[in-house]
Amino acid sequence: MDCARARSDGPWWHSRGSGGRSACKCMINRNRIANQPRRSRRSERGFTMDIRGRLSLHQVTSLHARIQAPPGNSSMSDARQQAEDHYYAALDLMAEGQLEQAVARYREALLSDPTFTEAMHGLARALQDLQRYDEAIEVAQKIAEVDPDDVLAHTSLSVLYQKKGMIPEAEAEGAKARVLGWKQQLKQGGG
Q1: Nearest 5 degrees, angle CA 11-CA 16-CA 17?
Q2: Across-strand partners of 28?
Q3: In principle, which of 28, 37, 105, 175 could form an S-S bond with 90, CB 3.0–4.6 Å?
Q4: What distance in Å separates the CA atoms of residue 72 and residue 74, rounded to the nearest whole number?
Q5: Collapsing DSSP states into helix, strand and coil, what is residue 33?
Q6: Are 103 and 123 in contact (CB under 8 A)?
Q7: Alpha carbons 46 and 48: distance in angstroms, whole number
Q8: Cα separation, 129 vs 160, whole angstroms
Q9: Exposure letters 42-61 (e unless 16+ CB within 10 A, then b)
Q10: pLDDT in tens, 21-60
Q11: How far apart are CA 138 and CA 143, in angstroms?
Q12: According to the model, what pLDDT value does residue 61 have?
């Protein structure tokens, strides 16, 4: 099954077909020979593909964290693990539209680890979706205290202030977010 199209030494137009696929039946995307067995995505990803539909995001990430941790040398404290468990449960509740229950789980996560900024961001978002803007502003301000360089905290504050009609405050926080974003880009060499 050797043809000019199957060989890389043939002219470039022999490997061009409609939609970027090879015109020759012996070739499939990116020069794969049709006679070679193609594994399905399911077999390539193995076990995780089989259980993905049966587990929640929280269960998958918790399981992944436990698998990645070296035996006998837990890199996460129990409090942090509890905080993450509550956080991922809150994410699942948010996805299901159960905002009040999500707020409760985010608060439980923050009781376990008061500096867990991802949980604070989730709590602020859930409170915003519930139109409890004053509480959301308090949470976003707490994030900015814990991590003054958190662009998302200042962006959230800007949005929340705008929703409350506090336009000058919203513009000030938006400007802070932009400046912090530019600084981060410069540090990364992207600017």
Answers
A1: 145
A2: 32
A3: 105
A4: 6
A5: strand
A6: yes
A7: 6
A8: 11
A9: eeeeeeeeeeeeeeeebeeb
A10: 444 444 444 444 444 444 444 443 443 334 344 445 555 5
A11: 9
A12: 55
Domains of the chain: 1-38 (no CATH), 76-187 (1.25.40.10)
* % of the chain surpassing 70 pLDDT: 59
Q: Where are the beta strands (DSSP E) in the chain?
A: 27-28, 32-33
Q: What would you measure as the largest C-alpha separation in the chain, in angstroms?
A: 72
8 secondary structure, DSSP code: T
Task: Count other C-beta atoms under 10 Å from residue 5's C-beta.
Answer: 20
Percent helix, strand, coil in the chain, to 5, is 65, 0, 35
Contact between 99 and 106 under an 8 Å Cβ cutoff? The reply is no
Measure the CA–CA gap between 120 and 143, rounded to whole angstroms: 7
Cβ–Cβ under 8 Å, residues 153 and 147: yes
Rounded-to-integer distance, Cα 119 and Cα 103, Å: 10
What's the distance, Cα to Cα, between the start and end of the chain in Å?
A: 51
- Tokens at 56, concatenated: 């929640």
Buried b (16+ CB within 10 A) or exposed e, 120-136: bbbbbbbbbeeebbebb
Question: Residues 165-189: what's their mean pLDDT?
Answer: 93
For residues 125 and 130, give the distance between their C-alpha atoms in angstroms, rounded to a whole number.
Answer: 9
Claim: this prediction has a pTM higher than 0.70: no
